[in-house]
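During the no-cost extension, the postdoctoral fellow (Dr. R.K.) reprocessed legacy sequence entries with the updated structure-token encoder. One reprocessed record is reproduced below for audit purposes.
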Amino acid sequence: MTQPIRILLQTTIPTTEDDWSIWRFSMLRDYLASVTDEAGNLLFEVTERDRVSDADGNDPILSTLDRSDFDQLWLFALDTGEGLTEKDCAGINAFRRRGGGILTTRDHQDMGCSMYGLGDIGAIHFFNTKNPDPDESRWCIDDPYTTYISWPNYHSGRNGDYQKITPTEPIHELLRNPNSPSGLVEYFPTHPHEGAIGVPTGAKNARVIAMGKSLITGRPFNLAVVIESEKDTDGNTLGRAVAASSFHHFVDYNWDIEKGCPSFVDEAPGDGMNQEPRALENIKTYVRNVALWLAP
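Re-encoded structure tokens follow.
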């Protein structure tokens, strides 16, 4: 029997009851832990944890991730700059050099900007004060309702609703869905203020695979970017990577609004995901595809 793929679901914030701590990703965890192959064998072994700091301020797992037995890191960067130390970033970068697959995601403005230390993965994420979008015309507020949040903050819809995504050509295998009439993943959960991602200048193995559209301005924005495996200058075969514009594509509240949210979330929710079962099936299919594609 083949060993399950070992996935670490990790946030960059300490466990806090009234925040987006890892326990709010329980539907993602439970789904991944339930997926089986045709023989009924479990495909994934899932570990979940929030950030913990040792005496030197480093996370003891992330800073030594290359020496762990994990195959993948799904990193939910929910900090505003202090979520990863240099040693944490070094451990994650070394993990990828040994072939580990990585999904990274964040949200609006400067949320998750500690990821900038993750080399080409960090360069894919565009923030407000660090590594801003090279297109200066995008240095403007998209969501005008939550006034204390600045750009990037693309308004794809209310928490609890879903958006029709636009796959880019050629269609990437992450967006294949045999259960859909179109054969594609068509829907992602929405969020009032998604972050910004893109392909850095000179990047050869990265590309945008899916786009959304602001309900406020009509402006298109990137939802997912992938980095294919390649060899670095030292001959290491780097693991694949996926970058997502918002962690709200994966959190319980956006899969099922009845799961609740932290008290600081003050936007009125929608109920589209609960009304349209295909939307939840679509994001689960995408999650399964990502987990298989990132496997070494």
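The CA atoms of residues 142 and 154 lie 5 Å apart. The chain is about 20% helix and 20% strand. The remaining legacy entries will be reprocessed before the final report is submitted.
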